[in-house]
Structures are given as structure tokens and as C-alpha cells.
User: Fold this.
Amino acid sequence: MPGLRYFFDAFSQPSRAVMILLRANKIPYEPVIVNIAKLENRSNEEFMKVCPAKTVPAIDDNGFKLFESAAIMRYLVSKYNLPDHWYPANPERRAKVDEYLDWHHTNTRAGAAMYFANQFLIPRFTGGEIDMSKVEEAQKKLHKSIKLIEGHFLANTKYLAGDEISIADVQAVCEFTQLWMPDYKAYEAGSRIDTWMNDCKERLQPYFDETHKMVYYGIKSGLFKSKL
Assistant:
């Protein structure tokens, strides 16, 4: 029978965010892995019909095709009538979630993803030297984002958009976890963002650990060294 098909790569931070939302709410789905390292996002004809942008994640929900992680999560909350805290119906509370999501990609993601790529991923896949100018540029972007997150989004609330977890938190926390790979501590233990990270991890268990286990926990323990 047709159903929700989820196209993803577990190395993709946005892919993990959507997967956590799916699993935390027990939404049935068929997982379809799109291996970006093997350029399957540019060779898989089925996937490219779902996502002409050739980016993960994407979904095909009984013929309804959608890509971009924030759009997918908003859709899932509405389509599957998920608990209101994920994406509140109240206009003001919803706007605060949107405020972070609209800011995320050119700020938190731009810093964290580019740091991870230039410090860890690219050198391991290409065998080349680390471009420290790009690493330092990403660090500056990341530190600037952390400062605003702590001073604005987390200034008076437990989570990014209120006192209950939302899809904004899921999107953000998956971005910060990639920093575990190069062992980069972008924030101090006990800082506001560190407390928020721990709150998110605890709130999203066991789905948080299950989703990250194969990628980060596996690599750090040496399970995937031969594949890098």
C-alpha cells in the first residue's frame, strides 16, 4: 500500500531532524537512503522526481512530494495532527518557531555545517589539507550565532521558541551535534546553550540516540574508519 516514503542520508543534519520528529511521534514511514557521498542524489531517478533540487531530506506522502526539512516538519505536524507544542496553532507562538527556522539556515547551519565540512568531512574524503581560513570563517559565524541564540532565543525560555520543545529545537540541536565529530566544543560546559542541548537530548530520547548512533557514535568508536 502507498504511504509516506522518506528519502534521507543520516549524515545530513536536516535529515536527522525530520527522522527524529517522525520517530518521536511514531509516524509510519518507508525509509529510502540516498547516499550523498556516492552522489546518489544526482543519479537516483526516483529520488530526483521527488526532489528536483537534489537535496535531502524529501518525502513522498501518497503522491504528495515535498523537500526542505523545515517545510517537511511543518507539513508533518499539520497532516498527522501532532501535539501542538511541535508547531503551535497560536499565531504568536508559531511565529516564534518560524522566527528561528527562517534564521537557521544562514546562521546556525552556515556556521556549524561549514565548520564540520572543512575541518572534518572534506579532508577525510579528499585526503587534502584542512583549509584553515574556511574553518576560521565558519567558527566566527558559529560563535556569532551562538551569542544570538543565548541572548535572544534562549534568553527567557527553556527552549528556542517557548517552554516546550518545538521543531525549531529539533532542527537546531541536530546542527550542533555534528560538532562532536571534530571534537569541537563551541560553547562552555554549563553555558545556556549547553543546558539547552542537554534538555533537548533528554526530551528527545530514545529517538535522539537512536538517530545519531550510526553516524556519530559509530564513527567516533571506529566502526566506520574504513569507509572514510
